[in-house]
Amino acid sequence: MSKQVLLFCFLFCSSVLLSAQYKVEGTVFDFSTKLPLEGVSVFYDGTSIGTITNQKGKFTLVSDKQISALLVISYIGYKTQMFSKPSNDLGLVYLIENAVQLDEVVMEPDTWSREKKLNIFRQEFLGTTMPALQCKIKNEKDIRLYYNKAKNTLFAYAEVPIQIQNNYLGYKIEYNLMDFEVNFGNFIGDDKKPGYTYTAGTLFFSELNTKKVKKKYLENRSKTYLGSTLHFMRALANKRLDEEKFQIFKDKFQIHPYVEFDIHFNGQLSEVNQKTKLLSILYDGREQSSIEVHVDTFYIDYYGNHSPSKDIFFGGVQGGQRVGNLLPLDYLINSMD
Question: According to the UniProt entry, where is the signal peptide (predicted)?
Fold first, then answer.
């Protein structure tokens, strides 16, 4: 499908600053019964840093470095809670059961077959790259798809986390889908409005092989990381764009990157001002991307997590990457110390 505009967003880039401490504790209860909930997932969005609650509903989550990702508390059948600035002690957290079922939503007749909608969903959600093609959604039956003819838009819903097995990168991913739209473009008079893809949700990574990570997975992760948005943001935050083989272009002319990027270190965060709204990126002399910023200042943490993500858009190679290309925000962190 040809699209001129691409919007692809994850919530894991949404907050700016957490506490200076790196341990978070709390106890999770059912709001109605006031009983503790065991097995509740607690994790930093977009990472492999997570835990579950014990029989008493208690959890302790520790991270080595400050991270600006959302803290997510998620349990099947309950509304997810997210914290952008959690204290070291969250105290008592109450989860409310999901009362509304998707089957109760009234929709207009859908003329597209499920097979057609599912093929588009796989392509726009996972992507079409090598890593994406080796991904498998384990619970496709839990995904509800709806095509709205009037809006020329495909929507997707899921009441439970989408379970993804990435056989190229060696990860299992739990993706809590909050919003998914593929708009195929519309005519306004004689002019055609370009389409877009928009995805939002939280996700948690775990190893496919818990005992020992296979060599092929490590090699594939390294190849996928190089030139990615995560690689770019880390290089930008540490003023290592040249060393990491990133070139910056303005109006088709190569420029010194720090003429356009004004970077200041603010504690655990890098504060970035991009002076020109749209800049082009060339990685290793071959992969073309772009970065478009709609905010005066954005922030990058130690992990390469940037915020506010809703005001930063990537095009080209980086903009075309989907869930199938994602690595945890804490990927390779140990080698960076």
Answer: 1-19
Phi, psi (rounded to 5 degrees) for 58: -85, 150
Three-class DSSP category at 158: strand
**Among residues 29, 59, 27, which one has the least CA distance to residue 44?**
59
Please give the helix or strand (H or E) that residue 233 lies within, else none.
helix 229-237
- Tell me the whole-structure pTM to 2 decimals: 0.83
State pLDDT tens for residues 205-241: 999 988 889 999 999 999 999 999 999 999 999 999 9
Cα–Cα distance between 319 and 48 in angstroms, integer?
Answer: 23
The CATH code for residues 14-95 is: 2.60.40.1120
65: left (phi over 0), alpha (psi -120 to 50) or beta: beta
Distance CA 71, CA 87 (A): 11
Read off the pLDDT of residues 172-204 as tens digits, 9 standing for 90 and up: 999 999 999 999 987 665 666 678 888 999 999
